[in-house]
Amino acid sequence: MRIGFTTDAEVEVLDFAKQHGFGSIAWMRFDQSFAAPGKDRWRENAEHFAAEAQARNIRISTIGAFYRNALDPAQTEQARAALHRAIEVAALIGVRTISCFPGGVIEAKINPRGGQPAITPLENFIPQVVAFWEPVARYAADHGVRLAFEHCPQGVFRLPLMNYNVFGQVANWERFFNATRCENIGLEWDAAHLICQFIDPVENLRRYGAKVFHIHAKDAFINRELLTTYGICHPGVVEHRLPGFGQANWSEIIHELLRVDYDSDLNIEGYHDPVFKDHPTDVQSPLAGKKLERAGWLRAKSLLEQFVPRED
């Protein structure tokens, strides 16, 4: 288990990782990268980047293929092409996992009482979700690759409200896994998304740890004063944070991952933190213009590495 961070596929970032003792990266935004569908010399460019990573002893833990809604008819063909290409690149350069959102089928009706659109619960469409993903999973299995679904709710207030990711609700993990026979579909697990729904990350791992194929190392903070004053649906009640600045018990999380023989890495996802991120210059804030994301990676690393056994 190595500690790394999520990033675009850039050699300069590999240099930063090597210089500061990181051991891995998660290659994000693949569908906008030099190896995406429609790009020339994608094989050569992917192999070059992988060689640069290997030369620095940086492992590519996963390829983040498509974090939008593959079940949206307007995006389905683009998603399928990106996923297939990511699978081919992963097989080419020896990456075991590609990651993505599973998406969801969106069906809205007008509520006659209120006149507002009401989305049909995403769990009503589990068979359609399975029908899209099983052929992708079989293509991945044929290439020795597995799929990791991130469970980001994509809803307001960090909750699965009016969202498009069926895995935003933990109950739907079970519904999906019960409906498919594809053993190479698992989770890209993130403690922050659980904390924001008042789910204990450690207990969640005890139930689903065997299905965790990749981890976004991210934390969350619940402001109890705001919660008790305004309730859960209020800005600022929940915040995503870097590990070390939230409320996850990382010693217990890593202990549980070791118990289930987790075989990938902890890749820090930092840009959601309200402080340790790169702040735009055009905002009214004392932090305007400050570049703090990489400083945050280093602070999160210093916390996590206390609990991760060193490689021999």
Can you put this structure into words, describing what you see?
By secondary structure, this protein is α/β, with parallel strands linked by helices. It has a single domain (3-304), classed as Alpha-Beta Barrel (TIM Barrel), CATH 3.20.20.150. Helix content is 35%, strand content 17%. It has ten helices and twelve strands. It has helices spanning 11-19, 42-55, 76-93, 126-142, 170-179, 191-195, 201-208, 224-230, 250-259, 293-304; strands at 3-7, 24-27, 59-66, 97-100, 108-110, 117-119, 146-150, 185-189, 212-217, 219-222, 238-241, 266-268. It has an eight-stranded parallel β-barrel with strand order 1-2-3-4-7-8-9-12, surrounded by five helices. A two-stranded antiparallel sheet has the order 5-6. Helix 1 (11-19) links the parallel strand 1 (3-7) and strand 2. Helix 4 (126-142) crosses helix 5 (170-179) and helix 7 (201-208) packs parallel to helix 9 (250-259). It is globular. The chain starts with a strand and ends in an 8-residue tail after the last helix. The mean pLDDT is 97.
